[in-house]
Amino acid sequence: MTDRVALARLSAEIVECRRCPRLVEWRERVAVEKVARYRDEPYWGRPLPGFGDPDGRIFIIGLAPAAHGGNRTGRVFTGDKSGDFLWAALHGAGLADRASSRRADDGLALTDAYIAAAVRCAPPLNKPTNDERDACAPFLAREMRLLTELRVILALGTFGWNAALRALTTLGYPARPKPRFGHGVLYQVGPYRLVGSYHPSQQNTFTGRLTTSMFDAVIAQAVAAAA
Q: Does the predicted TM-score (pTM) go above 0.70?
């Protein structure tokens, strides 16, 4: 069973992180300037820790919080279109107790799944630098080490895929040759199964690159791999 106290301490450390000056400046400026549709709402404006079931067997890794999604609500994949797509799929697979989530205090609960972003602060243009990526990398590896029931890693997009591979290398499970990302691909890396999926970004879902049926299928694949 996962040490919940240690996981909570790590989450608190993530929230207080100020390692990357550009990201700190951006996330805090966005939280002050806001956008018109959220001008009356308070913004989180800090890094986002992971969220979900500490004893979950499936770890879902995204890219980074959205400026007016997670950076506003204070929870990964909450309050934006990517999250709408994700929660509906997780609910359909029995991993989430509801099909949508717009606020961090809405009581959403996950079963057998834990979610985190590879980069914990909202980056300008959704593009963290390599230095920012590397500064955040230890958090992901530490989360994975603490999640003792973890069996499957579902990487959303190439960025999440590469972040997962770097974390696995840190944990002592380098993948050689490096597995190639693809939607629905599955690789065994040490004791873990790594599954790839297109990221549920609007760029992918609005263009049809990632459809509801495709995402449902890859979530089902991850569930089956964890069995």
A: yes
DSSP 198-212: ----HHHHTTTSS-H
> CB 33: neighbour CB atoms within 10 A?
9
Distance CA 171, CA 156 (A): 20
Question: Is 185 exposed, middle or buried (CB count within 10 Å of its CB: 0-12, 13-18, 19+)?
Answer: middle
Write out pLDDT tens, residues 157-184.
999 999 999 999 999 999 999 999 999 9
Residue whose C-alpha is closest to residue 67's, from 137, 133, 132, 125: 125
The reply to whether omega before 177 is within 30° of 0 (cis) is yes
What are the extents of the domains in the chain? 4-226
Q: Is 116 helix (H, G, I), strand (E, B) or coil?
A: strand
At 179-199, the pLDDT tens digits run 999 999 999 999 999 999 999
CATH H superfamily, domain 4-226: Uracil-DNA glycosylase-like domain (3.40.470.10)
Cα-Cα-Cα-Cα torsion 38, 40, 42, 47, nearest 10 degrees, comes to: 20
Structure tokens at 160: 């999440």
Q: Which amino acid is at 87?
A: W
Buried b (16+ CB within 10 A) or exposed e, 153-183: bbbbbebbbbbbbbbbbbbebebeeebebeb
Structure tokens, 213:
């049926």
Per-residue burial over 6-24, b if 16 or more Cβ lie within 10 Å, else e, is ebeebbeebeebebbeebb
